[in-house]
Specification:
It comes from Massilia agilis. This protein is α+β, with helices and mostly antiparallel strands and 480 residues long. The chain has 16 helices and 18 strands. It has helices at residues 42-60, 93-114, 117-121, 124-140, 143-151, 156-181, 187-195, 201-221, 223-229, 232-235, 251-254, 279-282, 303-315, 327-332, 336-340, 346-368; strands spanning 10-13, 23-26, 65-66, 69-70, 72-75, 80-83, 86-88, 246-249, 322-325, 372-378, 384-385, 391-401, 407-414, 420-421, 426-429, 433-443, 452-461, 468-476. The longest helix has 26 residues, at 156-181.
């Protein structure tokens, strides 16, 4: 392959010596700035609906309250995750693993059905890029105006416009960084500290860090993140098959391409339906030409479908020259209904079944989770022999009340006949706290008793018998 055919490489000829030409291969080629046109249509409306939905959730959730505290708070300092009525502790790390499994399975399912749906409609990079481009269009104008502005020399007008855009971008980025940190530090406290200029160094760092990341990714890197940084673009083909709905150009119908007037009969002129207007390229946020077939740069935003349908309607041609379809449907000439009939194929059903099973198991586990956890640690010291010849072992019970109500628990011990608790059996534990309580167990051990006895501590709520936990332990008998 010649150097010119390799993307990302540039060849620069050197001065020729002795009639021989040499080339220097540069490993980096600066990208050309993309000025996407704003599409309108059914898919664009859905994309903006997802922008509103995701951002209302993101910006609004940390301001909600539940039981007198922040409804959604990942309190890393105190190692508690609050999600409305659920309080998760480090011992509940399994639920984070389940959440990651559900996310991966959902990605597999949605990709097998409709390609890069997540990328086109819900990915944070796509959402914030859409928001930043909306601000850019409002301040700098549409595509042609932005191109003219960038090509014009610097002056007061250009400086004012660019400054206004940057101010709006920075405000959005700071709001995003502040909100993100508000999920880990109580946002009301964070707001008061910002207002009084008493924000701590770590909170300041993370607010500025995430603000800078938002500003850089959505304002400048944009499609570069999707094309070169996101790993999903590289392995998406492994999740596709020939029955996956993808955005496709119908070459049989559209080629040969060519410009023509509305009154020209394309068949009489030997042309396809594509008028080669180039609008599908102009609306693409990654700058690709969908007419070249499936490409890893395509994020599935469907802007090309909207703009092509508008052109087809104006020309009086049927819509769907660029549409969601499958490779099998395109090759066989299936109707949209026939293509959709292949959606529920084996791999999709398997993904859906696994996803529903894991989600149901996780939901059931959360619903049946006991808001009480107990750990038993035996004292490192040797067991003691009391004056009445009874053997005493000391334990430490780590009682964790994961509920948001105060609870009082009763401690019982089960073991050989005659074994009894020699300390206070009632333990009061405030809401969402852990209390370490020393517990003494005594037993009048017979001379022939084993030196190690299995016992069980039973801790149960004094008001609700369903809240109970049993933990095994070992009772040791010292040599006499």
């Amino acid at each position: 392959m010649d150097v010119q055919d390799k993307p990302g490489l540039q060849a620069a000829p050197l001065a020729q010596a002795g009639g021989s030409g040499e080339k220097v291969v540069e490993l980096y080629a600066s990208g050309q700035k993309i000025y996407p046109r704003a599409p309108t249509g059914w898919f664009a409306s859905w994309r903006w609906a997802m922008v509103w939905l995701t951002q209302l959730l993101f910006y609004g959730a940390p301001w909600l309250t539940w039981n007198g505290r922040q409804a959604v708070l990942f309190d890393l300092v105190h190692r508690k995750f609050y999600i409305f009525g659920v309080v998760l502790w480090p011992q509940d790390f399994i639920y984070l693993a389940i959440l990651l499994m559900l996310s991966a399975l959902s990605l597999f399912l949605f990709t097998a059905v409709g390609g890069r749906l997540f990328c086109g409609y819900a990915c944070p990079q796509t959402v914030y890029t859409e928001m930043f481009m909306w601000v850019e269009r409002k301040i700098e104008g549409e595509r042609a105006a932005r191109m003219r502005l960038d090509q014009s020399p610097w002056g007061l007008r250009k400086l004012g416009i660019k400054s206004a855009k940057q101010a709006a971008w920075i405000a959005m980025a700071l709001a995003t960084g502040f909100t993100f940190v508000g999920y880990f530090t109580p946002i009301h406290t964070l707001a008061r500290e910002v207002a009084s200029l008493t924000l701590g160094p770590w909170e300041t760092f993370w607010v500025l860090f995430y603000s800078f990341a938002t500003w850089g990714n959505a304002g400048y890197m944009r499609e570069q993140v999707c094309k070169y940084m996101c790993p999903y673009a590289r392995f998406q083909s492994a999740m596709f098959d020939k029955d996956t709905l993808i955005i496709t150009y119908d070459a049989k119908r559209g080629d040969p391409r060519g410009a023509r007037g509305r009154k020209v009969d394309p068949k009489a002129a030997g042309l396809g339906d594509c008028i080669d207007c180039g609008l599908c390229v102009q609306v693409c946020p990654t700058g690709i030409d969908i007419r070249k077939g499936l490409q890893y740069e395509c994020i599935g935003c469907a802007g090309c479908i909207d703009v092509c349908n508008d052109v087809m309607a104006k020309m009086g041609y049927p819509k769907g020259l660029v549409r969601y379809t499958t490779q099998n449907a395109l090759a066989a000439g299936w109707t949209p209904k026939q293509a959709r009939s292949r959606v529920l194929r084996p791999r999709v059903l398997v993904y859906a079944a696994i996803l529903l099973s894991v989600a149901a198991a996780a939901g059931l586990s959360l619903a049946l989770r006991t808001p009480l956890k107990v750990d038993v640690l035996r004292d490192r010291g040797m067991p003691r022999i009391m004056e009445n010849e009874a053997v005493e072992n000391v334990y430490r019970l780590q009682v964790m009340n994961t509920d948001e109500r105060d609870h009082t628990y009763t401690v019982l011990v089960e073991g050989p006949a005659g074994m009894a608790l020699a300390s206070e059996p009632l333990i009061a534990v405030p809401s969402t706290t852990t209390r370490a309580v020393p517990v003494r167990v005594q037993w009048q051990a017979p001379p022939n008793a084993d030196k190690s006895q299995r016992i069980v501590f039973k801790v149960r709520d004094t008001r609700d018998a369903s809240i109970a936990v049993s933990e095994k332990a070992v009772f040791l008998i010292p040599p006499r």
